[in-house]
Amino acid sequence: MVNFSIKMIPFVSANPSVFALIVLIVVFGAIIFPLYKGRRMSGRLKWILVASGIVIYFIQALFYFGYFVDDAFISLRYAESLAGGYGLNFNRDGSAPVEGYSNFLWVVMEVPAFLVGLEPVIYVKVMGVVLGIVGLLLVYRLGLVMSGDERVGLLSMWMVALVPMYGLWSVGGLETVLYMVLGVLVVVMWMGGGSGWLLGLVMLLVSLARNEGLAYFLIWVVMVIVGGRGRLRRGEIICGLVFIVGYIGYEVWRVIYFGDILPNTFYAKVRFGWGVMVGKVFSKASFYYYISPLMILAVGNFLGGERDRRWVWLGVVALSMGFLSGLAYREWMPGWRYSLPMVPFLVVLAVNVIVRVYDKSEMRYGVALVVIFVMFMHLLVG
């Protein structure tokens, strides 16, 4: 494992040429996006922009490739034990199993590395990078589904790609990006009108990726009740049953196997009380600064005029993920690991406002270019 010291502005001090390359791509994007007011992009240009966003992300993932957090070896230990026939147990001395992880799905996804004989650290990193690319494509899809505007999808994808911590946690060894990707997929399915067994399965998977993923199902239940005014459609019933049966089955197995309904990490990391909550707020001050432009812009979705209820629900998801990220007693790892999953939702909310303001005002092209470029650079260097 390579020792690593994260910096607020990683590229400038470590690799000026890489930083310059990303800035050039950003300038290209800032020039292109405002040009397409009211016009459809050609398929070739759209995929050039998609590929450029993936290149930005891939450069960042390569930059951080030497980073691997110590806690990732806990998950790998459980995966190795499971592959070796010892069950989900950290120890192999016959002692009672203890649930020392909070990312069941991630542990299961690591098992093939040991069954096939692959280098587990490299396997995890490659899996994370692939998930990161899938995540960017899903962010593009979310922006498109929400707004019907390709610019919102593409700009959102670029902005997430520019977040250095997205690249960091793609290769950091833990489930952060998996959890984020599944969460975005769930919301894409919601906003696209999806229901039925597949949505129920994806909501089950996100709740198995991290325990707080249960929040997605709870939000969906409220959405269904409010939107349907108490009437359930067949697809919604099937969706709910798939999730409930699967989740109850998992919890029953957990109690039988580990003797507790919650993982040991919950008791170790979750704290409540006013003093603790104030401390958590101050400990995340740098993250709040980082997302402050996104939060300010996002509010524009709820000011004046007729409001699309879907944007309200997207705001609810973003706030819920932010609240849940604060439950951990302390976030000692770099890169705001617990807070990162809310970023894609904030980005889509913010980008929608940027595009709307540009389309509905007499804002000059030059001003729009500056706004987009400044947002890009803020996300890149924090």
Polypeptide structure, described:
The structure is a single chain. The protein is mainly alpha-helical. Helix content is 70%, strand content 0%. It has 18 helices and no strands. The two termini are 27 Å apart.
How would you briefly describe this protein structure?
By secondary structure, the protein is mostly helical. The chain has helices at 10-14, 16-32, 43-63, 72-83, 104-116, 120-147, 150-161, 164-170, 176-191, 197-209, 214-228, 234-258, 264-269, 274-283, 285-298, 309-325, 343-360, 365-381. The longest helix has 28 residues, at 120-147.
What is the topology?
Elements: H1 10-14, H2 16-32, H3 43-63, H4 72-83, H5 104-116, H6 120-147, H7 150-161, H8 164-170, H9 176-191, H10 197-209, H11 214-228, H12 234-258, H13 264-269, H14 274-283, H15 285-298, H16 309-325, H17 343-360, H18 365-381
Helix pairs in contact: 2-3, 2-18, 3-6, 3-7, 3-8, 4-5, 6-7, 6-8, 6-9, 6-17, 7-17, 9-10, 10-11, 10-12, 11-16, 15-17, 16-17
* Mean pLDDT rating: 82
Q: Describe the biggest sheet?
A: none
Report the radius of gyration as a whole number of Å. Answer: 21 Å
What is the strand content? under 5%
Descriptive key words:
mainly alpha
